[in-house]
C-alpha cells in the first residue's frame, strides 16, 4: 500500500480527537494510533474523555495530574494510552526530547580546539608559552 505521510497521521489523530504535539515524530503518531485501537478494545476511548474523566483515568493509575490545558492534554492523553495498554508511545525519532532521563548532549560549550585550554581559557599545563 501507499506509505502514510506524517501529515496524514496528524490529520487522522486530530479527526480521532487527539491533541498531539506538532513535535511528535511520525513514528510516535503511528504508535499512538495503534495504541488507540488497543485502548478502544479495553473500552477506553481516550480522545472522547473530558478533562475530568482524563484526570480520573490517570489518577486511577496513580499518575500525578495537574490541570488539563491545551498544552498538557496531549501529554495526558498519551500517558493514559500508555497505562491503559501498558506500552509506550515514544517513537524512534521524536523531534523534541521531553524525557527527563536522557541528558541531551551539551552543545553550549564551543568544541576545544587544542585540548589544552580549560573552560576559562587559561592554559591547563605549565609549559604552554
Automatic annotation (TrEMBL):
<protein>
    <recommendedName>
        <fullName>LEM domain-containing protein</fullName>
    </recommendedName>
</protein>
<dbReference type="InterPro" id="IPR011015">
    <property type="entry name" value="LEM/LEM-like_dom_sf"/>
</dbReference>
<dbReference type="Pfam" id="PF03020">
    <property type="entry name" value="LEM"/>
</dbReference>
<feature type="region of interest" description="Disordered">
    <location>
        <begin position="86"/>
        <end position="116"/>
    </location>
</feature>
<dbReference type="InterPro" id="IPR003887">
    <property type="entry name" value="LEM_dom"/>
</dbReference>
<feature type="domain" description="LEM">
    <location>
        <begin position="43"/>
        <end position="87"/>
    </location>
</feature>
Amino acid at each position: 500500500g501507499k506509505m502514510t505521510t506524517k501529515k496524514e497521521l496528524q490529520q487522522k489523530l486530530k479527526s480521532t480527537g487527539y491533541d498531539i504535539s506538532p513535535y511528535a515524530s511520525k513514528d510516535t503518531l503511528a504508535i499512538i494510533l495503534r495504541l488507540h485501537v488497543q485502548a478502544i478494545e479495553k473500552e477506553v476511548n481516550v480522545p472522547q474523555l473530558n478533562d475530568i474523566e482524563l484526570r480520573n483515568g490517570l489518577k486511577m493509575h496513580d499518575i500525578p495530574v495537574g490541570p488539563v490545558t491545551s498544552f498538557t492534554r496531549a501529554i495526558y492523553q498519551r500517558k493514559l494510552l500508555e497505562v491503559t495498554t501498558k506500552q509506550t508511545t515514544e517513537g524512534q525519532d521524536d523531534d523534541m526530547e521531553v524525557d527527563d532521563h536522557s541528558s541531551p548532549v551539551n552543545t553550549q560549550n564551543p568544541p576545544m580546539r587544542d585540548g589544552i585550554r580549560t573552560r576559562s581559557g587559561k592554559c591547563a599545563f605549565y609549559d604552554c608559552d
